[in-house]
Design goal:
mainly beta, nine-stranded antiparallel beta sheet, about 10% helix
Length: about 130
């Protein structure tokens, strides 16, 4: 029974999002709370969610640029800030709900549609 509890604990810890870095949207420093693979939303990339409800989506372009979208807290539609940084993403071995976990790094400095977004963050175990 102990081995089963240990296995469950290892599985739960292995699926925890790992986020690091700094992101600022409209002069608000975001406290990154969670992340999701863009595959769940139909794109190759990642979405990070701040505790304030702001969501930042970074999509991979064929050239390795970061194409950035920002969804302010409560917004159902995001603002397209364009390709304005660099982005590295790779698949991990684990899969949750038929979505492969992703890891990588995004760095960007964007301004469009009345929104500014700047920062750099790393991510792991985003599904």
């Amino acid at each position: 029974m102990r081995w089963l509890c240990g296995l469950v604990l290892v599985a739960a810890v292995g699926c925890t999002n790992k986020l690091g870095g700094d992101v600022v949207v409209n002069d608000e420093k975001l406290e990154l709370d969670s992340c999701h693979s863009g595959v769940a939303y139909g794109f190759r990339g990642v979405e990070v969610v701040a505790k304030s409800g702001v969501r930042v989506r970074v999509g991979a372009t064929p050239t390795g640029e970061a194409h950035v979208f920002v969804m302010l807290a409560g917004a159902e539609v995001g603002k397209d800030l364009g390709a304005c940084g660099s982005f590295q993403i790779s698949d991990q071995n684990s899969t949750v709900n038929d979505v492969k976990n992703v890891e990588g790094k995004a760095t960007f400095d964007c301004a469009a549609e009345g929104i500014t977004a700047k920062g750099s963050f790393t991510f792991e175990n985003c599904h």
